[in-house]
Model the fold of this input.
Amino acid sequence: MTRPATNRPTTRREFLKLAATGTAVALSRPLPASAAEKTITILHESSFIKPFDEYVVNTLAPTYEKEAGIKVNYEVTSVGSLQTRISTIAETGSGADITMNGLLGVFQFGDKYLDVSDIAEDIGKAQGGWYDAGREAVVVEGKWKSLPFSNIGQLMNWRTDWFAEVGVRKFPETWEELYEVGKKLKAKDHPYGFELGHGFGDNHGWLYPLLWSYGGSEVAADGKTVVIDSDESARAVDFCRKFFKDTMLDDVLGWTDVSNNKAWMAEQISCTNNAESILWFAKREFPDIGKVTDQAVNPAGPKGRFHLLNAISHSIFSFSPVREEARGFMRWLMEPKQLGGWYAIADSYYQPLLHGYDNAPMWSVEPRNLPYRDALASAHLPGWPAPASRQMAESVAKYVVVDMFAKACAGASTKVVIKDAETQLKNIYRAA
Amino acid sequence: MVTGHGRIEQAVRVWLPIGFFLVMALFPFYWMAITSIKPNAELYNRNVMPLIVHAPTLKHYVDLLTKSSFLLWTWNTMLVAVVATAISLILGTMLAYPLARMRFAGASLIAMTIAAIYLVPQPLLFIPLADVINRLDLGNTLTSVILTYPTMLVPFCAWLLLGYFKTVPKELEEAARIDGASRVQTMWKIFLPLCTPGFISAGIFAFTLSQNEFLYALIFLTKTSVRTVPVGVIAELIRGDVFYWGQLMAGALLGSIPVALIYSFFVEHYVAGLTAGSVKA
Amino acid sequence: MTIASERFPVLAHAAHRRASLSVVLDRQSVFSWLMMALPLAFLAALVGYPFFYGILLSLEDRPVAHAGTFVGLKNFVTDAHDPIFWRVAINTFVYTGVATLLKMVGGLGLALAMNQHFHMKNLVRALLLLPFIVPTVLSTVAWLWMLDPAFSVVNRLLVALGWPKPGPSWLGDPTLAMVSIIVINTWRGLPFYGITLLAGLQTVPSELYEAASIDGAGGWQRFRFITLPLLRPIILIVTLFSVIFTFADFQLVYVLTHGGPANATQLFATYAFDIAMGAGQLGLGASVALAMLPALALLIVALSIYLRRE
Done:
């Protein structure tokens, strides 16, 4: 599929650069270091677990410099800014050599990433093989454009004490069972709180799995046919509506990602979908709440149990002047010694996508995080079973699936909300 | 002349509405202040009366100042605001003076163009502007915002100064012209010194807008070291989905104080600048 | 005369020569254009160029980090078929209209209340401006907390008065969410309106009021026939600014609801941002942003005509 490209000529950019250099240099960044020693710059999003970033700066980088004589510069950007930062680098062709990717980043910027299939194959062979989810997250048109690092999963968080009060000691297996328990808990003033607003993680984390577990999906595996209008989707929507009405706080319709964390610490809710942040924060700031907080895999629907894939991976920019050195570094970084150490320092916040770590000691540090490992086998990107694409990214950015459920919960009829979603998706996939 | 009756009546007439507006305006600040000194346990407690603090703590302020780059962001914000304001005042004057004082072909066209530029708000420009900033390799530098803030400030400064300039009596300039001064000298030595209230007015407003700006800062400044307070606080006092509420509120208060102080000194001039054209001496 | 020649020696010399550079520079048109050259160049480069570039972008299919392909009006057609786009348009108009009206009326009330004599006027004036001064994103975070039904003082009051627990969901109910952003916007902008109108009020000569009183005009009549007409220009100018700011508002919604619940508070600016920065579709995002222009232009033209009619 070739597109005629109207590329901006390099000459224009050079001209503009010259024109502005006078003013820019005075206030701009300092002059680059001498070319004697090579430097690899890695861009990473600031980690939720501070020691994780510190490990690179204090341990990994110095070790590599000693071994290979190449300096490693670890640059951190704040949470949420990674996309913007990569955009800038990709557009200007400079700024970093290796970058972390989140969610659909590999597909959006895949054209600017080096093919690392060879490194990936070797790593997979040496460390137990990749989870399918790893492949799903980074393979673009048959080529590995990134090296999967980990998943940052979303799980069900639940209050063991309140569930026990209504006679439930093990987290419910299915959505229907969860619903029944929720009704009882709401009656006891311990409602559920699942995000249905315009956040980023805690809404997708359960809504896509909900849709899939009833057999629904946005687009078929061919990546073109919009199939949201189906009985399966309708059943998922109907479930969601009663789930909201009978078990949850009204406010969840407007919740963003922080809201359920806040509600948990304020002891307002008994169950929600979240990443590891609730447990982590509770253990530190509210130990009493932390003691009664547990995590579980998503409930199953009639068509199975699913989780959201939010994979972190590392790519090498194809325009990097030190790309060969970068390849060498990535090989080194993904060796068991380095990789294992890096995973371990973050207490299973990052779930490895290599089977070799399925029984690693890191999992025994906080047994409540084990469900994260179990979730990997059923984790998928939003938009699954269609392959990742720009249309998928557009659907996520426009909250098509989230709003479909949210509007139904707010009172709209199932038929209408599904039709709306279909119209939107048809519009988005028109270009496909 | 004011009887006992009249005094009470006057107090009610003044303080009832003013009191109402004050409460409306300041209640959120009270909330910010209270939240910033509540320990986390109280902060998240639904059952206590949220308007009182039981065990105040300065921990959030300490954490804000020591564990985050808040002071650096404040410095960046002030630097950017001052420079952007200065640039805008200068460029604004260079536009407003000819329009106020000179007659020349194309004057009305220019005036309309400036008004039209005001019509182009930031969200309209941010996508292509991001591209421009990238090409100039100015991403993540304070230059990017120092250059782009005046785009929203210059039209406003030009308009406000134009209005103010028109009210300055022409006699002094005419006298200087008769004495043989060039236009530049007239403008520089005679005219501009008379316009202090106008400059203060435009300057304060520009400064406020500048330190309030968020969209461009969000897009151009992704490194901690170059961020301004609005972006820094929102992007970094929120780790993933955990809001550090106490620190956020502390940051909000500390972020407003410098500007509020400036306002309290200059509000008289601010109003004077806007009042241009009123009672002549 | 001698004193003047000393003060302005350069031109005293020049006056003796015929067509010299300084004389040319002193011609009104030359002086004006030279003076305006720098600011005009600046605006052309950083507003004009991006503006036209933005138009070009909107006519392209331009995914981030890829070259653009010209597609004509395709993006606008996509927008026209996008139900969210129309929701966004309605939201933005409602938001702007209601908030501006509230600010105008409230601001006038504030100005009238402040236009009396009392102590500590300066302090009060500075305090009242605080909502306008504090960076929007920061005060909005405070509002986020205040609007949480679990913590909201208003909800507590309502529940105490009999409302079913936990009280209204300010950010979860679509209508209330819109009300919330309008309230916060009004809270933020009213002081600016008020203080500016106050400045205008203070320019109304008291003689006019006195004359009217002597003629038998009551308070309301004095307001309607003297105050309002004289305030009209300043009301319109402030309204112009307010409308532009509010229509293009981004920060408030970005922090508070990010467009939720289900796009009930999604505005042009936030929607364009999501599309451009979230989905990486720069061309489509630019088309949404540009959609603001006709609406804004219409509003401004209407207001200007009204103003010109003075």
Summary: Chain C touches chain B through 103 residues (CB under 8 Å).
